Amino acid sequence: MPTRISYGQLNEATGGFSASSLIGSGLFGHVYKGVLRDNTRIAVKVLDTKMARESPWSFKRECQVLKRARHRNLIRIITICSRPDFKALVLPLMSNGSLERHLYPSHGLKRGLDLIQLVSICSDVAEGVAYLHHHSPVKVVHCDLKPSNILLDDDLTALVTDFGIARLVKGGDESANVKETISIYSTSGLLCGSVGYIAPEYGLGRSPSPKGDVYSFGVLLLEIVTGRRPTEVLIDEGSSLHEWVKSHFPHKLDPIVEHALDRCTPSVMPKEYTKIWRDVILEMIELGLMCTQFTPSTRPTMPDVAHEMGRLKDYLSNTSSSLPIEEVPLKTDGV
């Protein structure tokens, strides 16, 4: 890890951690953009002082994960700044911000991402999380996969970020959790994850596992297709996003698919491609429903999910193909 950057350097780079430099806020602190003297553009994640006292493991955990896990679809750490009254992670600044920003563009100033871009982003995320679960030197359960924790670089390559509540898995055993983690609750008594993305078994007292991340990824897929936040569906429909989409499956999906086509289709696209895009949207819905099944053991693994997303990405990239898309059987547990 590089030499730690001083508090003074970070203070200068962010204009004194000014409001104009603030680019994000969350439970564990604030994120500021800044420019170092060598013109390196950085994002500084400053841990909230109260949370640093109540949850000292969060900062250590994120440092440990970012230091040891290396993958093109995971955010990399530049360095850290740590002193008794201040703790911060220094990360590269992602020019295209978060996926959240693109799914819900403010004030109608820009059109959202198209389906090819969205499928590519989902493929990137799946690859990154599959690496965490099965190939990283330290096996990791992210625990908070959602659009705001997915950043996009200059080329719209997706990078998974925010490992503040991640859990380490002993020996790659999916049923095990890190020794110091007794339950899914942090020291503040909060559930591991964000409302709408939390796997149902977590609410029943189960320990975090890779299958929980699979559930969150499935919610992400359904959110991208429907254009609806899971919390919005919970309030408006009184059900989870999985339950709402499942109530339309398989014979009442046309309105959802057409809405997705309207949002994710370029203004000019050959008519013969419409069926291809419709098929891909249907596949995303099926995969999303598979990932969000109630029973963890019935969900696919992230490598399986990454394989399916890679297949859809390749299929879209070759729109001239006349071969029919391979069907993915949907096996649900009735929930």
TrEMBL record:
Entry's EC annotation: 2.7.11.1
UniProt name for this protein: non-specific serine/threonine protein kinase
Record flagged with keyword ATP-binding: yes
Membrane topology, from the record: Single-pass membrane protein
Keywords: ATP-binding, Cell membrane, Glycoprotein, Kinase, Leucine-rich repeat, Membrane, Nucleotide-binding, Phosphoprotein, Receptor, Repeat, Serine/threonine-protein kinase, Signal, Transferase, Transmembrane, Transmembrane helix
GO cellular component: plasma membrane
Localization (cell): Cell membrane
Top-level lineage group: Eukaryota
Binding site for ATP: 45
Organism name: Quercus lobata
Sequence intervals crossing the membrane: none
Catalytic activity: L-threonyl-[protein] + ATP = O-phospho-L-threonyl-[protein] + ADP + H(+); L-seryl-[protein] + ATP = O-phospho-L-seryl-[protein] + ADP + H(+)
Family: Belongs to the protein kinase superfamily.
Enzyme class: transferase
Protein kinase domain mapped to chain residues: 17-316
UniProt keyword Nucleotide-binding present: yes
Pfam family, one: Pkinase
Gene Ontology terms, MF aspect: ATP binding; protein serine/threonine kinase activity
Taxonomic placement: Eukaryota, Viridiplantae, Streptophyta, Embryophyta, Tracheophyta
